[in-house]
Fold:
Amino acid sequence: MTKHPTRRGVTAGLALGTLAIPGLGIAAARAQAKPIKIALIAPLSGPWARQGQLMRMGAEMALEEINQKGGIQKLGGAKLELVVADAGDSTEKAKNAAQRLLSQEPDLVGGTGAWLSSFTLSVTEVTERAQLPWLTLSYSDAITNRGFKFVFQTSPTADHQAAETIPTVLKLAEAATGKRPKTIGIIQDNTASPVSFGKQLRDGGLDKAGLKAVVDQVFTPPLSDATPLVDKVRSAKPDFLMLLTSAMPDCKLILEKLDEFKLGKGKIPLIGNGAPFGSPELLKTIGPELLEGLLFSVADWPMKGQEEFIERFKKRTGEPWLTQDSLTAYGDVWIFKEALERAGAADKLKVAEAIRGLNLTEGPAAACFPGPIKFDEKGRRVDVPMIFAQWQKGVPITVYPTDRAQAEPFWLKA
Amino acid sequence: MRTRAEANRQLWAILGFAVAVVALSLVLRNRYYELVLTQVLLWAVLSLAWNLLSGYSGYFSFGHAVFWGLGSYTVALGMIHLDLTPWITIPFCAIVGALAGALIGYPTFRLRGHYFALAMLAYPLAILYVFQWLGYQEVALPMKRESPILYMQFEDQRVYIALALGLLVAALLISLWVENSRFGMALLAIKQNEPAAEAAGIDTWRWKMLALMLSGALAAVAGGLYGVVLLVVTPETVFGMLVSAQALILALFGGVGSLWGPVIGAMVLVPLAEGLNAELGDVLPGIQGVVYGVAIIAIILLAPEGVYWRVLDRLSRRAPSASEPPRAGAAVVTSPAPRPAINVARPLALAGTGGDLLVLRDITLSFGGLRALDGVDLVVPAGGLYGIIGPNGAGKTTLFNVINGFLAPDRGAISFAGQSITGLRPSQVCRRGIGRTFQVVRAFPRMTVLENVIVGAYVGAADDATARRMALTALDRVGLGGRADTLAGGLTTRELRLMELARALAPQPRLVLLDETLAGLGHEDLDGILGVIRQVRADGITILIIEHTMHAMVQLVDHFTVLDHGRLIAAGRPDDIVRDPSVIEAYLGKKWVDRMALTAQ
Structure:
């Protein structure tokens, strides 16, 4: 994975943040206007550094906007400050980062991030004990299955995603072709999220959807040769193929082999899951032709109504398009802003309480996520639809849910 | 082996270290530093566990993550599936680790050197996939709100420091005990020369297995506690390459094969890595790895054997060292310091009791197409001084290797003192009372002369003190009493041969096999050694000696057996043998037989 940290945005954000701290002369006002600290823990080094950088870009952009618009009004215009820590490449480092932030920044009111779900699991072991409200885009069910009270998942959980994806795919296919698919092929690796996704499908998900798995292959990354997998697809000819991979080289191998076997370019429609299927890096390594038409479900993706924000983001960071990582980090900071306004105090317990009571359907925070910003007692968002994006002419564009889609989906016919 | 005073000093050092850590934990007052300190202690335990096997025995393991990870998963899965508290599962990890060590050691100890290291690498990598396949990608230890203490979940992080410290102290004490017992001596001997250790009666297989099992148990217990501290267990974090590398790097940095090396490594490198991560991670992502790497490279360049040994060398260079081998060794040896009179224990079999001590029947052994031994029959009566001669490649050393168990014959039987010893391992053969020396001296160069001989004495000694006494006796017998404390690496060829002889004699064997003990020695040296050999024989020990050259042998032995091309071609008294035409032919060719015949006429 390439690492191209964009430093301009980072420095700009920090500069603005520090400029904002002094200024107010009145003692009382100054006490109130003490910056409010929010943590971001994300992998900034190691194999997932790029994702961490993307999250940082989103969080800093939100911070800058909030501060420019006058900070937290209920708190005398107090500015937000982002404290960043590197989760590195292991759960140990992630946990250390969390413990360090909590030790060195006792006045944190909340935090976001960790990205990889195992990192989030270990980070939240620390934040939960410190009663620090934590927002995360990680979607492992385990994160909110532990009875924790201070962890809030902005993404639908893995099980939920798996349960939602297939019926929606069938609906899209039926709408486009008039025919309901009967068979499915599954190729997945055995890393954490594909495994939990695949488990949901096999444990009743497929039966419920009336689908028969004619290909069901699990491999251990890295894949050295996709021929045996794709060969099975060729002979079984499923109505569509579910690709559950987490590493780009594996995905590339499979797509190329499909093309070589004349199964590409829509001969067999491809469905993916997860934000990596819409990353600019994928386009760079695989190219637009092989990706054209690939449909993937994802927890969060740029939607209708965000055009102006997306333009600002692209201009600010030089990224070709906005992805889930930046978008949710941006949204999370806005959720904290809303919660702080409601809490009326820079206090983590009150902020947590405010988050529990949120029910946002409009405003900058709500605009970042599909469905309302409302959490159940487990810390999961309620009534969250899955988003589907589709590669169309070299760009992954949101095509579902219809009310927030940027384009019409098309179903490549077999 | 250390003296008791030194061991006591180490005990005090361990106590001092523990007190210092406790004091540190009391002044930290910062949960983050407390967490890092806990990790330092746990990684030190893993590194000590690694050191127990790899540092002492020289069998480098690239796969200690397998034990660590099994420990972590034992605790995590025990809590999730069986609701078992870590108070039970962590001690149970010792059994899991030892069992894993046995399962891994059984096939893997067939390999040596790099092959062993590489094979060890495979275990954690393989088991990582097993755990992924089992669906344990992310396992979180459930939070127990009702009875946290029962499940080892403490609000006060210092309890974890105390637990980890307890474990580290235990690991240090175990290491200290190993270092100061025949266990450690055996491992050290294996590290320096495994065949010699085996021939000296050390059951190398058993000690290696024990070391791996003990090491695995320690690593697994530490891994179990690590799981409790981290609360989230994933295959990559506990079975990953980085865990195995961490164990190795910490020990290499601090000093391999030393008690404190792994601890030093952990105390320096773990906080350094974490500090770099914390300070630079969000400013210049990735730079922490570079700095860490540079620090390790610098240490490798400046202190290749590790910080501990480097410091020790510095200190000992300043103070005049007593263990420095004196170069003019001969002077010391010719006038050995008189030792307090020790009763020279008489060997089990007294001279001249008669009977056949060693009987070989139809010994045959082939290496592929080459028949190295071809139906050799040999009977060595008790109390004799037997010589085996033959030209290069005649099969003499092969015959010794068959007798002492390095090689198993394809056919034939060997009996010793009336019992079959065919197919026994060298250490078992040694245990029965057969000692041997080697054509190329196999010393343990980094051990003192006395320690070299003690290794041999263990076979015949019930306890370490007896072994020491027997070793001193043996050294006196060969006239090396004055060199007991010299490092074996500093000995002359003659002294090395004598030392090896002493090692063979120390457990008071009934038979010694001397493999070209006289080779490469000058005349003066030769006479000295011949005297020693005669004395040994006079003490009632049966001797079987191989020699390539004949002249010294003629003076020494009372019976000759001549080997050529793996076959026994002649046997008899020395005077007869030197005139035997087939012997002359074997040595010098047909032409000389004719000439001898002419001369005789």
